[in-house]
Design brief:
MDM2, two-stranded antiparallel sheet, globular
Length: 104
């Protein structure tokens, strides 16, 4: 009999990602990054992984009902998000480009 290799399941949505073991380089989504002051006003202070930042921004958008009701792909920025995006509305596809500029 041959064993079929077991596939690793993705962690459930919202679960924290384990830190890489010693000697392993973290991937781009796991590296701790420092948000700018403008972005920290939305996601909170302290370093966090890029994926966590994106999740918190989406949580903020949904909590404050900032998605365009006519086109869910469009985000209507409030005062806090205008400082991050630099404009009144962005699409969900270009949002990550603006977030990257605020992460170091």
């Amino acid at each position: 009999m041959t064993k079929t290799p077991e596939k690793k399941k993705a962690p459930p949505k919202g679960a924290t990602v384990e830190k890489p073991k010693a000697g392993h380089k973290p991937n781009a989504l796991q590296q701790p990054l420092q948000p700018s002051q403008d972005l920290a006003a939305v996601v909170g202070e302290g370093t966090m992984a890029r994926g966590e930042v994106v999740s918190k921004v989406w949580e903020y958008i949904k909590t404050n009902k900032l998605q365009n009701p006519d086109d869910g792909r469009e985000i209507l920025a409030d005062d806090k998000l205008k400082k991050v995006f630099g404009k009144d509305k962005v699409t969900m596809f270009e949002m990550n480009k603006f977030l990257a500029a605020h992460l170091k």
